[in-house]
Target: 60S ribosome subunit biogenesis protein NIP7 homolog
Amino acid sequence: MRPLTDEEITSLFEKLSSFIGENVKLLIDRPDGVYCFRLHNDRVFYVSETNMKLAGNIPRKDLLSFGTCFGKFSKSGKFKLHITALDYLAPYAKHKIWLKPNAEQQFLYGHNISKPGVHRISDNTLKYQGVVVYSMNDLPLGFGVAAKSAEETRSADPTIVIVFHQADIGEYVRAEEHLS
Model:
């Protein structure tokens, strides 16, 4: 467990800011305590300072997890968000998309979202912007990247992909051994 380097922090915050914008600072400056990001086995954990100090008493080879895993760094140094970060991204999301009930299941199986499955989209969503995907009942289902802007979506062909899938809550079942 170690603090992130400057390059790792930059990569992490760029990814987070594509979903929650300047609200990234709200993850660090919380009224309920001091929180930070730590790296352990190529995974980035979001943890309170109190729990981080407690985890420091456990030998590194025995430490599997602490805090919430936000994602991991690939061998090339790119950061990939995990679905476990959804609970922290959803309340601060700038760009949202709501799915019709028939498209929810397809998204939860790991498929992209096409236009017929879109119920509503945030007006200020730009192309290639990170979006949080919700059901019509405002339940966060996952996140992805907008393939079309909000304006392009309105006039798009029904077969066009609107959101590229990145992660969904169905991964808890499909890939549970890789999430820890």
In short: The chain has seven helices and twelve strands. Residues 47 and 67 are 4 Å apart (CA to CA). The two ends are 15 Å apart (CA to CA).
